[in-house]
């Protein structure tokens, strides 16, 4: 069994750790590091994993090191680890948006095995999507181990080119937030219509869950599922017309392009 170190005890690493432990990965094989204690200790207590304040200590005995700090800290953390411990045979997985393979490899030292991965927070439920791009130094064995790790949290899409990471960000990395925003807007309107906050949440979450499950279970176009709800001249048609007249498809496209542009901007810093 591979030993896995998670650098950073934030939202994304927490989601991956939850996905792994809930998928029967042995918690004693996982170590998390974070300079400040509260989040690190809470995570360790909740999932029975090891914890330390030292990134290099966490990485020392790990085969796979998951870098889950904010993008602007990735290279500092890499340098810090590479200066203190031997990293020759380790595989680093960076989940950061906007920090490139070149930047990460320069910080670790030449020719290190690095995978850029772009997961999302539904990983905590085993319902994640992870896009992954491997440097040429990643061995077959490391790729298989990384694939197994990521698959414990959901589906994995290996990418042929690094630039596709930005596209995965726009679709599935940031994607959960798009649905949350839509659900928030629907719940707010439901409250204005007189439902309590709890009722509004239940109505919206069950509608979203049901719609997503219908997409999963019916092998037909999503557009067809939409049409099946839309009686000619009926209420849904009236609502959908309002979305179209408000430019929803263009808005979605523009929002996804904005995510891509931001990822590129972050990489250029
Ligand atoms: N939140 C999300 O949905 C997704 C996030 N990501 C990526 O994951 C990374 C982390 O994002 P979040 O978890 O959202 O941020 P976060 O702010 O929740 O977590 C970052 C964690 O790093 C810790 N930290 C700060 N300095 C550190 C250091 N020197 N050494 C070790 N730990 C340190 C912080 O205390 C914090 O717990 C980012 O690079 C982001 O691009 C990728 C996909 C999805
Ligand atoms: O917002 C961000 O930058 C990160 C990357 C994808 C989701 N969260």
From TrEMBL:
Binding locations of NADP(+): 7-12
Keywords: Amino-acid biosynthesis, Cytoplasm, NADP, Oxidoreductase, Proline biosynthesis
Catalytic activity as recorded in UniProt: L-proline + NAD(+) = (S)-1-pyrroline-5-carboxylate + NADH + 2 H(+); L-proline + NADP(+) = (S)-1-pyrroline-5-carboxylate + NADPH + 2 H(+)
Amino-acid positions noted as binding NADPH in the UniProt annotation, renumbered to this chain: 55
Predominant location: cytoplasm
Pathways per UniProt: Amino-acid biosynthesis; L-proline biosynthesis; L-proline from L-glutamate 5-semialdehyde: step 1/1
One Pfam assignment: P5CR_dimer
An example Gene Ontology biological process: L-proline biosynthetic process
Domain of life: Bacteria
UniProt EC number: 1.5.1.2
Cellular localisation: Cytoplasm
UniProt GO cellular component terms: cytoplasm
GO terms assigned for molecular function: pyrroline-5-carboxylate reductase activity
Pyrroline-5-carboxylate reductase catalytic N-terminal domain residues: 3-98
Domain Pyrroline-5-carboxylate reductase dimerisation span(s) in chain numbering: 162-266
Enzyme class, spelled out: oxidoreductase
PANTHER family: PYRROLINE-5-CARBOXYLATE REDUCTASE, PYRROLINE-5-CARBOXYLATE REDUCTASE 3
Biological role: Catalyzes the reduction of 1-pyrroline-5-carboxylate (PCA) to L-proline.
Family: Belongs to the pyrroline-5-carboxylate reductase family.
UniProt protein name: Pyrroline-5-carboxylate reductase
Lineage: Bacteria, Pseudomonadati, Pseudomonadota, Gammaproteobacteria, Alteromonadales
Gene: proC
